[in-house]
Write a structure and sequence with these properties.
Blueprint: H1 6-13, H2 15-25, H3 36-48, H4 53-63, H5 74-90, E1 105-110, H6 117-130, E2 135-138, H7 145-158, E3 162-163, H8 171-185, E4 189-193, H9 201-218, E5 225-231, H10 237-249, E6 253-257, H11 266-275, E7 279-283, E8 291-292, H12 296-304
Parallel strand pairs: 1-4, 1-5, 2-3, 2-4, 5-6, 6-7
Antiparallel strand pairs: 7-8
Helix pairs in contact: 1-12, 2-3, 3-4, 4-5, 5-12, 6-7, 8-9, 9-10
Length: 316
């Protein structure tokens, strides 16, 4: 059996959201017109599908437009949902640009333990390698020996250098060494793992502030990116993580992981609508190549359960 294409994985990743939307919309189209009650019911169905109240209200307003006064069937509503989601996502779908000079571009990766942060770092490194960038890793989550060990394994598999120390070591010192070695080697990108201690905001802020001060001595522009990794299976809880980490860590962009069919994928749309932060990539599987920048139209159609555009059906 051949490996599923990216599009097939994408559709599978949003299957739960698409099916849930269909279940919630089912039975709402028994009337000839979209009256106020039906529009209210559709809005509630969209909120129940994890798309968020702002997105649901926006779609309801569109459906209430005079051009739909004769009504729509479920397929027609799904198409409107896809169009509105695509508009929302188009504003935030921004591949990560490696443009720092002098090199390296320093990327801090943050997120709660269990979000898939360390694995996402490996997948991001692989994605950048595919674009012919030289990558180095820093095992800055020194509070967990498992995180250090896991990142070392990935570095070996990817054949990239890694700066790592012992559990309990000073993360800022490791970052300093990473920038120094990366600069000497001409490395393009330095990806830094960090501790995911959401329950201790003060400690997290202090540690990140120390890392920033150390970076400033070597490269005043660093860190160039602060990426927050979000676990899509947590649904609306991911939004509260954006709130906390944005306040404590200066998040510049998002990566959504674990869009594997069990995920509440509508939260991707809710995050885009509420925060407007760049979403650099999404992860739809477990293999090293399953993290990719995304096409807003393709994702929107997968969420809404609408047939893909012809150009999206059989991508590599």
């Amino acid at each position: 059996m051949s490996e599923p294409s990216w599009h097939e994985k994408l559709v599978g990743g949003f299957r739960r959201t698409s099916d849930r939307l269909g279940d919630n919309l089912s039975g709402l189209f028994t009337k000839a017109t979209l009256d106020r009650q039906t529009l209210d019911d559709i809005e509630e169905a969209l909120i129940a599908s994890d798309l968020g109240p702002a997105t649901a209200a926006r779609i309801r307003e569109t459906l209430g437009d005079a051009r739909y006064e004769r009504g729509l069937d479920e397929a027609g509503v799904r198409q409107v949902v896809a169009d509105e989601i695509a508009t929302i996502l188009a504003r935030v779908a921004k591949p990560l640009e490696i443009e720092a000079f002098p090199r390296p571009q320093v990327i801090l990766v943050i997120g709660v333990n269990g979000s898939g942060k360390t694995t996402t770092i490996a997948k991001l490194a692989h994605l950048l390698q595919e674009q012919d960038y030289e990558v180095m890793l820093v095992a800055g989550d020194t509070f967990r020996a498992a995180a250090i060990g896991q990142l070392k394994v990935w570095a070996e598999r990817l054949n990239v250098p890694i700066i790592a120390g012992k559990e309990g070591g000073d993360a800022a010192s490791l970052v300093f060494e990473g920038v120094k070695q990366g600069t000497a080697r001409g490395t393009d990108v330095l990806i830094v793992d960090t501790a995911g201690r959401l329950q201790n905001k003060a400690g997290l802020m202090d540690e990140l502030s120390k890392i920033r001060r150390v970076l400033g001595r070597l490269n005043p522009a660093a860190p160039h990116d602060v990426l927050l990794v979000l676990d899509a299976t947590t649904g609306q809880n991911a939004l509260s993580q954006i709130e906390v980490f944005s306040a404590s860590a200066g998040v510049t962009g998002l990566v959504m992981t674990k869009l594997d069919g069990s995920a509440k994928g509508g939260v991707l749309v809710a995050a885009a609508e509420k925060y407007g932060m760049p979403i650099h990539a999404i992860g739809v599987g477990e293999t090293i190549g399953d993290l990719r920048p995304f096409d807003p139209n393709e994702v929107a159609r997968a969420i809404a359960g609408v047939e893909p555009l012809a150009s999206s059906r059989n991508p590599a």
